Automatic annotation (TrEMBL):
Coiled coil: none annotated. It comes from the Bacteria. The keyword Lyase applies. It catalyses: orotidine 5'-phosphate + H(+) = UMP + CO2. Substrate binds at residues 13, 35, 60-69, 120, 181, 190, 210-211. This is Orotidine 5'-phosphate decarboxylase. The active site is at D60, K62, D65. One of its GO terms (biological process) is 'de novo' pyrimidine nucleobase biosynthetic process. Catalyzes the decarboxylation of orotidine 5'-monophosphate (OMP) to uridine 5'-monophosphate (UMP). It holds the Pfam family OMPdecase. Homodimer.
């Protein structure tokens, strides 16, 4: 697929509607897409999504349940016209296939389904605590293959796995990548990070960036600076 002109997705992580609307106004012209996640959706639902922007958003709900329930969740949000929607690859083949089926049932445009592999907040040690003996890279690849063969359009992974995934799965599947930290930015709760330039250089399609943008004194300027750096890279 063609690479987006501006690959930055700004994560609008707040439960406050007016803050979300302000960030949306500030960032709409500076980034390629806005992402609304679980906290915002639980607080404001579909009506809140419509209030924040008229453009198609990335709906990061990370659905993870039995196939029938996830299919119902996909159906419930289809009318929002989201560009992308997340579900956990760990839900397995039947869950992902049910989500794809539900997305296609309505006909017409549907969100790209992105399977979250290993959360970028998990270090190798934290992943091991969950009972996974493999390292994050091995587990990402296992879940990536499962998700793509089950009907996912793309993957969410950390920037550290992007080059490996491109070598294994080729150029076509969408790679949407959080865990992005400009040089000097606070890492916070992220464990597997790279800079925007490094992630794009490795083969990412989209970069999900939250606090380094929304936590800045001037979010629009912070986003513009990252976009300018990417254009030079
Ligand atoms: O593995 C994942 C999946 C999703 N996310 C989401 O991306 C943003 C990152 O925000 P930052 O403030 O830049 O850390 C956030 O909305 C997460 O829910 C992720 O970080 N890792």
């Amino acid at each position: 697929m063609t690479k987006p002109a501006n690959p930055i997705i700004a994560a609008i992580d707040t439960t406050d509607l007016s803050t979300a609307m302000r960030w949306s106004q500030q960032l709409n012209g500076q980034v390629g897409m806005l992402k609304l996640g679980l906290a915002f959706y639980l607080a404001h639902g579909a009506a809140g999504v419509r209030q924040v922007t008229e453009k198609p958003v990335f709906l990061d709900l990370k659905l993870h349940d039995i196939p029938n329930t996830v299919a119902g969740g996909v159906t419930a949000v289809l009318s929002l016209g989201a560009a992308m929607l997340t579900l956990h690859a760990g839900g397995g083949t039947a869950m992902i296939a049910a989500a794809r089926n539900a997305a296609e049932t309505a006909g017409g445009a549907r969100p790209k389904l992105l399977a979250v592999t290993v959360l970028t907040s998990l270090s190798a040690e934290a992943l091991a605590e969950t009972g996974v003996a493999d390292n994050p890279s091995q587990q990402v690849l296992r879940l990536a293959k499962l998700a793509l063969k089950s009907g996912a359009d793309g993957l969410v992974c950390s920037p550290l796995e992007v080059a490996m995934l491109r070598a294994e799965i080729g150029p076509e599947p969408l790679l949407v990548v959080p865990g992005i930290r400009p040089a000097g930015a606070a890492v916070g709760d992220q464990a597997r990070t790279l800079t925007p330039r490094e992630a794009i250089g490795a083969g990412a399609d989209w970069l999900v960036i939250g606090r380094p943008i929304t936590g800045a004194a001037d979010p629009a300027q912070a986003a513009a600076a990252i976009a300018a750096d990417l254009e030079q890279g």
